[in-house]
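Supplementary Methods S3. Input chains for the assembly prediction are listed below.
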Amino acid sequence: MDSINKLIELFRQFPGIGPRQAKRFVYFLLSQTNAYRDLLAENIKNLKETIDICKSCYRYFPKDKIKSDKCVICRDPRRDDSCLLIVSRDVDYENVEKSHAYDGKYFVLGGNIPILEKDPLSKIRAKELFNLVGHRAKESGLKEIILALNLTVEGENTEDFLKKYLGEISAEYGIKISELGRGLSTGLELEYSDSETIKNALKNRG
Ligand SMILES: [Zn+2]
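Predicted structure tokens for the full assembly:
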């Protein structure tokens, strides 16, 4: 396979990208300078060296001098340890953080569970979450888990799964499981929500 077709195949694996868009990306790259293409290739390569995944919340973060395996939020002693907000993807947590309406800790599931999924545990970081909840309950007084999942069919399916999955352990340790207030909007997606909407959804959680 030549480089054009190989790249088209690679771009097609990006979320929401079809064959025509993938082809447009490749021809765009061909029209750019060598310097641009080198910069792009270099930065893709650097991801491995410069970005790490947090061992606690599983979000991606830039490696720093401290060489900690935890991100700045998880290391921050001012953040409320009694509250854990669960999101599907990194873009969701970024938007919640931007709203300045939340000062607890996070957990990134890394996806959603599709309807009728036979192996839900393989779709999200469920076991990692379960272990973290147990650890936090014992070590740092976890009192509330906020499910901040998108109000889409998949998001709600994931929410239902997590409520059952975490039901026993949360009852054992007296942890409240809440979800974002739905307000007026249906189909709320954190990625596209403004700070005001997120603030209200957090305030009206239950
Ligand atoms: Zn973290």
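Residues 54, 56-57, 59, 70-71, 73-74 surround zinc ion (CB under 6 Å). The radius of gyration is 20 Å.
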